Structures are given as structure tokens and as C-alpha cells.
Amino acid sequence: MRSIFIAGVLLFTGMLASAQDKQEMSETTKQQLENLADAGSDDPEDDSNLQLLDHYRKHPININTANAEELAALNLLSGLQVQQLLAYRKLLGLLINPYELQAIPSWDIATIKKIFPFIVVADNKSLAEKLGERWKGGDNKLLLRSARVLEKSKGYDLPATAGTSYYLGNRDKYLLRYSYNYKNLLQWGLLAGKDAGEQFFKGSQRQGFDFYSVHFFARKLGVIKALAIGDYTVNLGQGLLQWQALAFKKNADAMAVKRQSAVLRPYNAAGEYNFHRGIGITLQKRNWEGTLFASFRKISASQSADSITGDGIVSSFITSGYHRTAAENAGRNSLGQLAVGGNLKYQGSNWHAGFNAIHYHFSKPVQKSADPYHLYALQGSELSNASFDYSYTWRNVHFFGEAAADSKFSKAFLSGALVSVDKNIDVSVVYRNIQKDYVSVNANAFTENAYPVNENGFYTGVSVRPVAGLRLDAYADLFRFPWLKYRVDAASQGKDFLVQLNYTPNKQVEMYARYKSETKMSNQAVDTLAAAVVAAVPKKDLRLQTTLQISRQFSLANRLELLWYNGNAPDAGQGFLGNMDASYKPAHAAWSSNLRLQYFETSGYNERIYTYETGLPYNFSIPFFYGKGFRYYFNFDCDAGQLFGKSRKKKRYMDIGFRWAQTVYSNSAVIGSGLDEINGNKLTEIKVQLIMIF
């Protein structure tokens, strides 16, 4: 019976094989990144996931031997899909052909198309063979990137005209990254970065780049499951305690609600804040797994003097990574942060239970401002957290959750379930209850707030696939904030709804329509009152997008988006954005290019619209637009190895890329504000990149 099924699904080979050539990030992931940027993420441009996917294109995961962590690392599968694959292997044995994935509940054609370029069915090599190969058989990669805004902003004027605050460095932004990677089993590398406005080999950056990062990471060394030296991230439970890897919030994938990752992961992105620096190790013996880590690093912080003792105190952490002005340099690496912690987990056949703990010590006490919404914020120089996390799969239901407490015994709880109701219907639910005085550092859970604090809420989502090529995703989220928030001077509540319909009639056409309605409360000025009142502020968004694969060489995509802000209130406004993308990759040619043309018009900043922009390899951006104007960008990428006769099937040893992007505002003679203010109505960025693989 199984052989008959496999023979039947091979009829779909042509449709799925086309996905192997698709190098673009999935549309769902683009929307997830846009949502992160809109929610105020400090580093939505983390390219670690792009690096991982590119590695798996060249060295696919063996679907017969991959564990839950390896599958989850792709960020393409829900927790339910991962567990159902493991259950299928346990029940029926190893897969004979990758197309057999269609027999697994909740694995639809769209899911398989997304994962297809990154998997393979193969025999696993022995550990001895891997140890012999991993020091010499990996890829060496060198990336060099430079970017500049051509128009000169106010911050680059001479001190005599700019006043006491100005950018000390030039307008260039640099990135250098070297890495070695053998099938994700052994990897090391160096990253160096300089932002525009920062000095280079002078002043406070006499050592050259403003930021350096080094990592060494090894996996599967006998009882040592993972070993991290240098820079790495720690990811525990469901993020109530600690989560530093890329993780998404609410989005059009209604089932993507569970945090999934290995505890330790190497860090090689350009962000300068959200990682640890030191050593970490994970040991595994049968069903038991234990992790210990220790980190010490200097982080940037805003400081002031205690009014009584005169000692230095920290009022806030600086997470942007910018050290351009004298004021920003004054807080550079001014706070020592020691972090120690660990995890102990038992993995059963269809369940796991884990205990997590972490302790932070800061070299100076933290004391937030006296604003009422900071009443329960982090205070002092010590913080400890502990939690218990779990998962359990029963038939077609996958439960997960985490319960946490800080050193003041303030509590946080999150629990959810993923349910396969039918072959074509999946449901997700998440409940969270996080006390107003719960405090954590570097946490990132599935919450409305950017960080897990001061929130109660209930989320439910559904994914329906009534017929082939049609998918409906929807969610509803109701939430409360028991204490004050920034610009919300009272307890508040809100609601968030989304419906998205995807239509893919064939492999040449992909369309979706999305409607999103969100209502939150914030301070609103009233003419007849001296003080602001807290009132509900609705925001609605409608998006239509179509992608057409005209030929194997040429594709088109367009987006129309409408936004309505705050109903009929005095500050109500509307926004519109429309763009058209064209991508061209000639057959057997050494080069490719893509172009975007875009028009936008909004009432103001409140109606700003975020949109994902394709960049050069391992690079993307998510700018927002408001006002009225026109934007276009052009990317050109050339495989120099193929240009000089090297086959793309062999190791590509050189890739050269160029990007030009310009925004022209039709109703403004000045762009930006403060030191970033530009006299004129144009903003132009150029970017060049060189990648060498050897």
C-alpha cells in the first residue's frame, strides 16, 4: 500500500521540483519580518536565518535522521508539523522518497514546496567519518559590503554649523564577515561592522570597526551535543526567560505560535546587543540533556549620577548599536553584564519536560526613570529567573508551555496547543498571563508586547485548506495590560484580528488578500480637558498581492495596500502604498537583477506602512513610508565564477552585487529630523557587495 502511494505522489514531481530553484524568502517569512519591524524590533534585519537556509540549499537536511531542533531551525514548520513527522517515522519507518511527506497529517503541498529545497532522503554517515571530514571539507566564505546615503544629512556638517552634537565619522557603512561551516557540525567565523557616522581607525574606534564578533561552534561530538565558544545565543522554553534567536510574533501563518530552537546557537549577525559572549555546552545522554553557559560582555547604556551618593547608575540599555556622536560614545561598552545559567531536559517518546534558570549581574545598578509606567521595571544590579517548560503530543494534539518566576517571585505563564482537527483544518490556541511586575532580560515570547511583561491574553488561530491551491488563515487575539505602558497612563486592553486568503491555482500564479484590524488604547488629547485621556485607537489594513512567474527567467509581483488609522477621530488618517517588482534571470547566464517601482501616500507618520525589500544576497531591508512620494530600487547580482567559465554546479568562488535605491518625496523639501535631517526631497542609497567562497 505504501509503495502504491509513493508511486502516486511522484506525479507531483514537476510541481515540487520547481521549488528547488527558488532562492527567494517565502512570502510568509517576509510578512513575519514586516510585523517584527512594525512592532519595534531592535534588529528585524537579522540575516542568520538567510545564512542557515542558504547552507541547507547546498547541504540539505536528511529528513530521515533530522531531530526536532534541526527541523525547527528552518523556521518553516509549525511545532505540530515537526511532531507529526517524527511520529510518522516512528510508526512507518524511514521515508523512501521526499514526496511521501504528503501522507503526513497537516503537511500540505504549500508546506512541502517551502521545505523541499532544504531536505534530502539519504543514509547517515557514522560519527567517525564526520569527525574526519569536518576540519577540511567545509565552506570558507568571505563577505564584504559597503553602503552609503549619497545625500549629506545635518549630522555630518562641521561642528561650527551643527552645534555640539554631530556625527564623528563618515557616511559609509561597512560589514566584513568570514565564516567556515561544515554541514552545521563545525563552524567558526569573524564579523566586523561599522555603521554610518561611526569613526574608523580613529577617535573612539582606533581599533578599526566599531563592532567585532567571533564564534566557534561544534555539534554532535559524542556526548557533547553542542559546544559554543565566543558569541552565541541562548533560547529557553517559550521565551519567558530568555530567547535571543530570531522569533516571530502574530502573523498570517496562524499555526506559527510555538518557539522552537536548540538551546545554544552560534551568533554571526551584525546586531550588537542580543547575544552572549563566553562559553556554553550541551551534554546529552540517552533521554537526558543538560546545558550550562557563562557569559561576560560590555554593553552600551545611558548613565547618570545618583543624586545622593554620586555613584553611576544606569537608566536604560542602548540596543541600537550606534556610536556616532560624543553622547553615544559616552555610553559605549560602559556596563558590564555577567550571565550564567542552564537547562535540564528529559525527552520522552512524545513529550518533554525542562527546567531553566539564569542569573544576571550588572557592574552598575539599573534604575529606570521615575515615570509611573517604570514602577515595576528592572531595578538594581542582580536579577534571577527560573522556569519550567513542557510539551506533550497526544494523537493529533500538541501541547506546549512555560511557567516562569523572577527573583521577586513575580510570575509569568504561557500555554498553547496545536490541533489537527481534520486533514485540511488546523487550529492553534495560546493563553498567556504575565504579571505587571515580572522582569526578564533578553526574553521574547509570543506576546503582544515586544517583551513578556504586564500582559494577559488569549489567542486562537485557524488554517483551512478546502481545496488544492486555496488556503485560509485567520486569528483573533484579545489582550489586557494590567499596568501603565509608555504613552498609556492607565490599565488598557486591545484586540487584533486577521484574515488572509491565499490562492495558488498553479506554479505560475500566487495571490493573497489580507485584512487586519487592530485596536489598542493610548493617550489621546481632548481640547476640553487639560490632561490626555486613554482611549481606543483602531487601525485597519487591507492588502492585495499577486506574483506571476511569466517564464523560468522572468517574474512579476505587485502589492496594493490601504490603511485606516483612528476612525473618525481628529487625528484620523489614511495611507496607500502600491508597488511592482520585476525579476529577471536569463537562462544559463551569470547575472540576475530585480527592479521595484513604488508609490505611497499617507496622511502622516501614524499611517506609515512597512514593506519588505529584496536586497543583495544575505541582505534585506524593511523600511517604512509616510508622506507622499515615489521610490524605486534596482539590484544587480553577478556570479563571477560562472562568468569566467566556472559551472554553477561547482563551488561558486565569487559573487558581485550592486544596489541602487532612491526615494523622492513630492510634498516635502526636508527629509528626516534631528541629525538625520536632509535638505531636499531625495534620499539615495548605494550598496556594493563581494562574496568569495573557497
Q: Write down the overall mean pLDDT.
A: 89
Proportion of residues in extended strands: over 45%
- The radius of gyration computed from the alpha-carbon positions, rounded to a whole number of angstroms, is 25 Å
Q: Which structural class fits the helix and strand makeup?
A: mainly beta
How far is it from the N-terminal to the C-terminal residue, by CA?
47 Å
Biggest sheet descriptor: 24 strands, antiparallel, barrel
What's the domain count?
2
Q: What is the tally of helical segments?
A: 11
Sum up the overall morphology in one term.
globular
Structure write-up:
By secondary structure, the protein is mainly beta. It has two domains: 2-138 and 183-549, no CATH class; 152-178 and 550-694. Helices cover 12% and strands 47% of the residues. The chain has eleven helices and 36 strands. The chain has a 24-stranded antiparallel barrel. The chain has a two-stranded parallel ribbon with strand order 1-2. A hairpin with a 6-residue loop joins strand 12 (301-305) and strand 13 (312-317). It starts with a helix and ends with a strand. Mean pLDDT is 89; it is low at 1-23.
Key attributes of the depicted protein:
single chain, 694 residues, 24-stranded antiparallel beta barrel, 2 domains, mainly beta, disordered N terminus, two-stranded parallel ribbon, 11 helices
Summarize the structure.
The chain is mainly β and 694 residues long. It has a 24-stranded antiparallel beta barrel.
